[in-house]
Automatic annotation (TrEMBL):
Cofactor binding, note field: Binds 3 Mg(2+) ions per subunit.
GO MF annotation: an example: tRNA binding
Organism: Blautia pseudococcoides
First-tier enzyme category under EC: ligase
Listed GO biological process terms: lysyl-tRNA aminoacylation
Family: Belongs to the class-II aminoacyl-tRNA synthetase family.
Encoding gene per record: lysS
Binding sites annotated in the UniProt record for Mg(2+) 1: E406, E413
Highest taxon above the source species: Bacteria
GO CC annotation, single: cytosol
Name of the featured protein: Lysine--tRNA ligase
Length: 497
């Protein structure tokens, strides 16, 4: 029965599609091809008209958008037009636009792009509307819009056909408008702090700066293998060496990893580097930046995500990784002095580790297993073990640990920052350790970058650096459940016909 109903529905849709094409052919035959229109002058948008009704009442305006509904009632009709800012009603009467144009209007379909000129007025029910004096078909929709797209359980289709999702769901459009404002606000803040925006290569010979597996490709012109960047770090540091004291980049990076609610293989990363400061300077910058963006985009420093309130107005908590593990796992790594003791503690607490993992790696595994989920309010987790921080300065008083922090909200890592390692001799040894891990099968380990080492030998000043996950920041500030909800076109498996 369900299969029969589906077949009938498909036949109905096919008939509707056929009718739309016939309407287009008829328009073209009569010299009214909408696709020949190249320009239409718009004076106002829907919300602008509603906001300025008292000023615009009785005056002529011109809008353009997609027809979302139409009620034909003899000599007069109503339609609803959706544009960038929302929806507005239009009253279309035969006597106002003329017999011929009214007949054309009656043949228009839901989904068509139209332009309407007319006077602003308010209906008897109090709805701000436009009394049309002219209706122009600007583009013919040859497909049928879903009647209740938001009600579809197939979210996969919404991501694949984002253009339909945007048409049918105003809150989706609002998310992407907010995303644009967030990135603009970040730029405004950093520019005001004396940072310079730069661009660095996406196609690189050595994809370093993060623990991630890169995508690989072949450059035919040079007959060389290249990688897509996994980070922005090493090139931005080269610019610090060159004397550009404050630089940042917002751009796509690519990591050959899995897909889930917080991960997409290409995503937007922002990294910034500031000479003559350290990771504590990066903490101050992070607090100020997050407060600035939330206030400017949302009008408040208190945000709610999935029903949980988070306060960006208060000073952010600061805790070391050692103390976080002690607090949430009940294990004090200050009392664990050897690799054997660390492994024993891991086995006792059912923390899985690999043979190559050192004491610091196991501390990090404990943190991930027991502490991360508790870090809901803005929190800086500081002083990571050296084993997981190959590009970070050691803490002078405790060289097993580094001047590094990760910023957490909602149990998610939101940013990662260092007092940058600028000792070329130490950096070479760290790269050697990474190469050894690579040889042991760690596909996320870094490889030695000789040009970067040469840059450090030229001399890099003391520097603080940080990387922000822009997509996660947008998720939090727009209360979006998954990273795909804040990417216009997320990565999807190809559908085979």
């Amino acid at each position: 029965m369900a299969e029969q109903s589906k077949n009938v529905q498909e036949q109905d849709i096919n008939q509707l599609l056929k009718v739309r094409r016939e309407k287009l052919a008829d328009l073209q035959a009569n010299g009214k091809d909408p696709f020949q229109i190249v320009k239409f002058d718009v004076t106002h948008h829907s919300q602008e008209i509603k906001d300025a009704f008292e000023e615009l009442e009785g005056k002529s305006v011109t809008i353009a958008g997609r027809m979302m509904s139409k009620r034909v009632m003899g000599k007069a009709s109503f339609c609803n037009v959706q544009d960038l800012q929302g929806n507005i009603q239009s009253y279309v009467a035969r006597d106002s636009i003329g017999q011929e144009f009214y007949q054309d209007f009656k043949k228009m379909d839901i989904g068509d792009i139209v332009g309407i000129t007319g006077e602003v007025f308010k209906t008897k029910t109090g709805e701000i509307s436009i009394h049309a004096s002219a209706v122009t078909l600007l583009s013919k929709s040859l497909q049928v819009l879903p009647e209740k797209f938001h009600g579809l359980t197939n979210t996969d289709l919404r991501y694949r056909q984002r253009y339909v999702d945007l048409i049918m769901n105003p809150e989706v459009k609002d998310t992407f408008i907010k995303r644009s404002k967030i990135i603009s606000s970040i730029r405004k803040y950093l520019d005001g702090q004396g940072f310079m925006e730069v661009e660095t290569p996406m196609l690189v010979a050595n994809a370093g700066g993060a623990a991630a597996r890169p995508f690989e490709t072949h450059f035919n012109a040079l007959d060389e293998d290249f990688k897509l960047r996994i980070s922005l770090e090493l090139y931005l540091k080269r610019l610090i060496v060159g004397g550009m004291e404050r630089v940042y980049e917002i751009g796509r990076v690519f990591r050959n990893e899995g897909l889930d609610t917080r991960h997409n293989p290409e995503f937007t990363l922002m990294e910034l580097y500031q000479a003559f400061t350290d990771y504590k300077g990066m903490m101050d910058l992070t607090e100020n930046l997050y407060r600035h963006v939330a206030q400017e985009v949302l009008g408040t420093t208190t945000i709610t995500y999935n029903g949980v309130e988070m306060d960006l107005g208060k000073p952010f908590e600061r805790i070391t990784m050692l103390d976080a593990v002690k607090k949430y796992a009940g294990v004090d790594f200050n009392e664990i002095h050897t690799l054997e003791e660390a492994r024993a503690a891991a086995k006792e607490h059912h923390v899985e580790f690999e043979e190559r993992h050192q004491k610091g790696d196991i501390l990090s595994l404990f943190f991930e297993e027991f502490a991360e989920e508790h870090l809901i309010q803005p929190t800086f987790v500081m002083d990571h073990p050296i084993e997981i921080s190959p590009l970070t300065k050691k803490k002078p008083e405790d060289p097993e640990y580094t001047e590094r922090f990760e910023f957490f909200m909602n149990g998610w890592e939101m940013a990662n920052a260092y007092s940058e390692l600028n000792d070329p001799i130490d950096q070479r040894e760290r790269f050697k350790a990474q190469e050894a891990l690579l040889a042991q099968g760690d596909e996320e380990a870094n490889t030695t970058d000789e040009d970067f080492l040469n840059a450090l030998e030229i001399g890099m000043p003391p520097t603080g650096g940080i990387g922000f996950g822009i997509d996660r920041m947008v998720m939090l500030l727009t209360d979006s459940a998954a990273i795909r909800d804040v990417l216009c076109f997320p990565t999807m498996k190809t559908v085979k016909e």
